[in-house]
Structures are given as C-alpha cells and as structure tokens.
Amino acid sequence: MKQLLFILTAGILFFSCGQNNTKKELPSDSIFHLTSQWQDQRNQSYPLNTLRGKTLVVVMIYTSCKTACPILVADMKRIERQIRPAYFDKVSLVLVSIDPETDTPERLAEFAKTGGMDAPQWVFLRSNEAATQEFANVLSMKYKKISPVDFSHSNIISVFNPDGELILQEEGTGINAEKVAGKVNETVRSS
User: Fold this and answer.
1) For residues 134 and 15, what is the distance between their CA atoms, to the nearest angstrom?
2) Radius of gyration of the chain from Cα atoms?
3) pLDDT above 80 (res 174)
4) Which helix (H) or strand (E) holds 93?
5) Is 31 exposed, middle or buried (0-12, 13-18, 19+ CB in 10 A)?
6) What pairing do the DSSP bridges indicate for beta strands 122-126 and 91-97?
7) Domains contained in the chain, CATH given
C-alpha cells in the first residue's frame, strides 16, 4: 500500500512540475498592460494583450488622410516586403486609427482590401477616444484634430517584441524599412 501511495504521489509531482500553467509575467513597460478594448477590421473586439506572442509593427493613421498617412502605409508595405514570409504567422502589422468615429470596422476592412493589406498579418484597430489617446501617449505619438475631417499627427512606426516591449521606433515619412524589417526578423528569430 505504501508503495502504491508513493507511486501516485511521485506521478502527481512529476506531472505538476512538468506543466507550466502560468504565463510568463509581463515586463513592467509592456503595452499589454493596457486594458482597453479594441475592434479590428473583422469587427472582432478584444484587448491588446490578444496580440501577445507576436512581434508587432505599429503605426497610427486615419483612413481619410491625404498627406502623411499614405506614405506611412507605403512604409508599412515596404517593411512587410522585407520580412521573411515564413515569419508572417509570428508578426502583426498593426495600423491603429486616430479617428475612431470615422474609421468603423467596415471602413477599415475596405481600406485594408483596397490597399492590398487583407492578409492575416495585417491588423487594423480602432477604439474609443480615451483608449486611442492612451495608446498614442505610450508611443509618444501626438495627434490633434484640426478640422472636422483632418488631423495633425506624428509619423512614428514602432516595433514591439512578443511581450509588448518597445524595441525600435523610426520617426518621419520614408523611414528606413530595411532597418525596421531587419529588427522584426531578428526578434522573431530569437523568440
């Protein structure tokens, strides 16, 4: 009887030690600590931490922009072309709207389709004004509505590791896509 009890106890300990049921704790500076809800172009709602585990390339835009945003979108496409295709399931190219009132999930879906950005690695997000401003603050991205249909905004592309830590930012339009994609490829390879 003692032998049976010993075997049962050893088996339970073996299985409980071999199972890692706890997720790795988030770093203190992770964007995944933000608890706001977001909607994507597929009209699915979720918190940002749903994207945890992927290397993120993030830019904030609005779909009716006629000046800087088309250049930022072109930069994101140039980055995508330089990411190893085998890594696409470990990368999300995230475009966050600064105009959530206009950029509905339907509008984001149409923008994605029209722009040739409807592959699974492309994620378009919108939330409420408070969550959008909070996210912009985390990125050190400034924006301001200057008319009913126009915004003044920073032009920043950010890269986050799978735990949501900022690892690279490039500012301006016409950024060094090779440098950004190289950081993405390196991060995926080492994750």
Assistant:
1) 42
2) 20
3) yes
4) strand 91-97
5) buried
6) parallel
7) 29-178 (3.40.30.10)
